[in-house]
Queue: 2 jobs
Job 1
Amino acid sequence: MTSATSATSPPPQPSHLRSHTFHGLAPGPRLLVTAAVHGNETCGTRAITALLAEFDSGTRAITRGSLTFVPVTNPLAYRLGQRTGERNLTRNMAPSAIAQDFEDRIANVLCPLLAAHDVLLDLHSFHTGGAPFVMIGPQNNRGTLEPFSYAEAELQLALHTGPHRIVEGWLDTYSRGIQKRIAKAAQGDAAVAAGGMTGRLQSLVTNPNYGVGTTEYMRSRGGYGVTLECGQHGDPRAGDVARLAILQTLALLGLVDDAPQSQPGEREILRLIDVTDRAHPADAFVREWRSFDAVRADETIGIRHSSEPVKAESDGFIVFPNPRAEPAQVWFYFAKRRG
């Protein structure tokens, strides 16, 4: 007989991270393709699963370099059917000498895997409506925040993934957001209390490394990569976007004998310039925003619980609006066309 205690106990956490690697018999780049970094973003998982069957059957073949698929990068979040397991895997990604949560344990396996590859294609989806887009890193630089020397190769990768829109400026913007949180925490901001944040979460969201996810860690290890937002969660077309991007990347890097499809030259490149946190559960948008909805300077985006309006400082675009964001977490990003 099953005891009441065991009947109500949560299932054990996943004990491993599954990957699939194909080695070509000629030298070439090492590509890593990840999906379900967030457990409810499964379009990439579906695309990878279908392609694995094609490689296993001999329908497709890797002839040069190597290809590694990780179809479910956060198996706990995937099992739960939600964005995170115990925390957001794509924030503060780094190896941990003492793992404090499930995502720390995953990062201890994932970070060496990233470092062992040259190129990353990270497949995601988003919760509100909008068209697919691809995120790239900084221009070549020798700065302290995100030094980089593969901007041209990364842009070529982005151009071949398919979406019309390219977004840059992630880590710069996130760094500014962290500074805002640190300043509010120093002032005794009520968002921490309203959100019921633990000391662990508070330390994460104010950590200067908090903006570092898969692609940022990849760049820090001497590689490059893009984050492809394939469409809205559950949209069957998002899986098609993920599949095309994988095939295009394989062809672009020369891992397969096929040539990549030609891509239209015109793209819209937007730069993230600011991030706004939700401060209280009663903070609300004035309407149902979609990613890349245009706003005019001084247009009201949302209303704080104090009745204070949150307005656009200039003409631009809403990115990743999240009406269900927790207090002290990202409510939306703001972007402008690259100048």
Job 2
Amino acid sequence: MQKFMKWIMPIVFLGMCIAIAAVMMATKPIPQTRTPPATVTTVKAARLKKTDFQVVIPSQGIVQARTRSRLIPQVSGEITWISDSFRSGGFFEQDEPLIKIDARDYETARVIARATLAQRTSAYELEKAQHAQAKANWKRLGDGQDASPLTLREPQLAEARALMESALAGLTRAERDLERTTIKAPYAGRILNRSVDVGQSVAPGTSLAEIFATDYVEIRLPLRNEHLDFVTLPEVFTGMQPTPELNHPEVRLTGQYGTRKVTWNGHVVRTQGAYDPRSRELFVIAQVDNPYGKTDGDAPPLKINQFVKADIEGHLLRNVFIIPRSALRQGNTTIIIDNENRIQRRTVKVLWKQGEQVMIREGLSEGELICLTPLLFAADGAKVNPLLQGEPTPSEDQSRLNEPDEKPLVKGRIP
């Protein structure tokens, strides 16, 4: 009997536990469940409006002088004087004396040339009188026959005239050489660097200094081929002279001067006749007038070989949509939010990109909402909550979404 109870009691106890557990499972309360609201993504939006936009084409280049040349003497001799302007960085005006070469030998040559001319002139006048006398004698004694040139002393007269003209040319050359002992500036400019000083002997071909003109400077600016549709360049055809009626786009140059940025204003004056063979870009020439003159501002003068960035004024785009670059998706698509706050992907035609702005003329309509928030996996028709200038945009569906649910609680089991 004890052995029987030993096996029966555990079984009975286990059965009672199972029964109690079954009763508890059968009588447990049913939990209340709430239907979760639909997930709506909040995005930033902007309302599209047509406006005008001024195209500015970026470029860059190196400042170059309009004219850059070497100052070379045409006569030889010792330098006896130099101007105070004849130093690196010095300014000079057109025809201003810069250097004087020892002129004593050339003054002597001019005296000799004048004496030679006087002798040859006297000989010519004498021969001319003899020629006239020979003609008169032959007229009186020639019996109406033609006289030979030698009888009339015509060869002697021609020789005397040639010698006189040669002496005159010699005097002209002597005076010109004497004048060249004073080297004058060929144009208003500035000394880039000088190579000689007082007491140095020079000869034709010796480089005295490197100079450049200061009336204006030029900058070669490259333009990509796609930029040419947005700017009117001063093109000149064969047989056509540049006229004021040609368009000369304004150019704003920016350069670094120490730790500050400085700007200068110029304009495009011409284009080059060929594309660059390496970059396949067209270069235009911008000109800055009077780059070394004092201006109302504190801008320093432009420097030769200075690197500058340029903004070229292009066309004025009228009635275009301006959107942030971040609102343009891959494949030139945008996300438009309709009246029900649902998104639609739309392909647009990009007209121009500048900085963080994109100009669009086709594919959008005025008054539409464009999504500014990046949505990587948003499908067409997905609902969003647009924020326009920080405020939610109302719509019929949004109003219904904000209404309280009459039956927020439903009974059922959690799946």
